[in-house]
Amino acid sequence: MTSRSKAKGSAWERAIVEHLKAAGWPFAERRLAGAVKDRGDIAGVVGVVIEAKNEARLKLAEWVAEADEERGHDGAWLGVVWHKRIGKSAAADGYVTMTGAQFTELLARALDIQTATPANSDGEAA
Fold first, then answer.
1. In Å, how far from its chain's centre is CA 96?
2. pLDDT recorded at residue 27
3. Are residues 27 and 44 in contact, defined by beta-carbon separation less than 8 angstroms?
4. Are 16 and 52 spatial neighbours (Cβ–Cβ below 8 Å)?
5. What is the rounded average pLDDT for all residues in the chain?
């Protein structure tokens, strides 16, 4: 990663942390890079791994796979990619991407309902 793209990524991570803090997650913070088993870019939201991306070219499949791997490293129940929207600087205007299985888990937890564990695209329990 070049220093320019690293600076862009760091600025986006800071924007996400500031947004989360303003929205009621006071312990949100950037994680230090360089861990052997990466656990995402943003910490402080219990059970959630956030992978921040500020890139011109969308690589959703790659990014979601990365967030899911980091979710496993962290023992979190949810892994998402929070990517910057072109032409917008606020984290609130960014996009958050996850798998359908992760989304249904989020809905079930938000609504406090019990659901069957749906299979992922590989036929495995999510």
1. 7
2. 96
3. yes
4. yes
5. 89
Decide if 41 contacts 51 (C-beta within 8 A).
yes
pLDDT band of residue 79 (cuts 50, 70, 90) is: very high
Asked whether the CA dihedral 86, 7, 19, 25 is positive or negative, the reply is: positive
How does DSSP classify residue 84?
Answer: P
Cα Rg for the chain, rounded, in angstroms? Answer: 15
- Token digits of residue 124: 């495995």
Q: What is the DSSP string of 9-64?
A: HHHHHHHHHHHHHHTT-TT-EEPPS--SS---SEE-STTEEEEEE--SS--HHHHH
As given in the structure block, the two tokens for residue 62 are 């790659």
